[in-house]
Design brief:
globular; alpha/beta; 8 helices; 5-stranded parallel β-sheet; Rossmann fold
């Protein structure tokens, strides 16, 4: 596990598609900046070379499971070295939309052992100070995403989302994890997230 000796605040927001991660990430950044903090908001995969290869593969054709996993790890290592760790050492707040918990979910779904994925990532990727898990029943998420296509595809997507939801919830017993229902209003979710973040920042 990567030990930290910085004064920053590292916040990660996870959840299946349709939970509103991106919206809440942007709202949290604005709220924390309003209280005088320097806040860096980013996402994974990143916009760097390895992240770009991952994003391009969504259009050109998905890579093999091992190739995809290798790119995620290279992308994250670079992210930690070049942005996450330096900003935390400055005492700033870093907010990430997706992190290695998503790798556990989505690459676990492709056949990799979730526990091994976690151990591998935590050898170089620092644990967050706060992990917000935005939780939503799969059927609600599918409605929000607006699934199109035949019933078989919908069932397939439903199973995939349930697997990922279960993965995120599997780490909910960590002391830094907070599960928040995405069935609440956007403002109610935001209020909870900001309160937890500000309390942690003041400690």
């Amino acid at each position: 596990m990567t030990k930290r000796s910085d004064s920053g605040l590292f916040i990660v927001i996870e959840g299946i598609d349709g939970t509103g991660k991106s919206t809440q990430s942007k709202m949290l950044k604005a709220a924390l900046e309003d209280t005088g903090n320097t806040v860096i908001l980013d996402h994974e995969p990143t916009s760097g070379p390895y992240g770009k290869m991952l994003r391009d593969s969504a259009v050109t054709g998905r890579l093999s499971p091992q190739e995809e996993l290798d790119l995620f790890h290279k992308d994250r290592r670079q992210h930690v070295d070049e942005l996450i760790s330096p900003e935390l050492k400055k005492g700033n707040i870093v907010i990430l939309d997706r992190y290695y918990f998503s790798t556990m979910a989505y690459q676990g779904q492709r056949g990799f052992d979730q526990a091994e994925l976690r151990v591998t990532n935590e050898t170089f990727a620092p644990q967050p100070d706060i992990l917000f898990i935005l939780d939503l029943p799969v059927e609600v998420a599918l409605e929000r995403i607006g699934v199109r296509g035949d019933t078989a595809n919908e069932f397939e997507q439903s199973d995939a989302l349930q697997y990922c939801r279960d993965t995120f919830l599997s780490v909910s017993d960590e002391p830094y994890a907070h599960v928040i229902s995405s069935e609440l209003s956007i403002e109610d979710i935001h209020t909870q997230i900001v309160q937890i973040a500000l309390e942690k920042r003041s400690n």
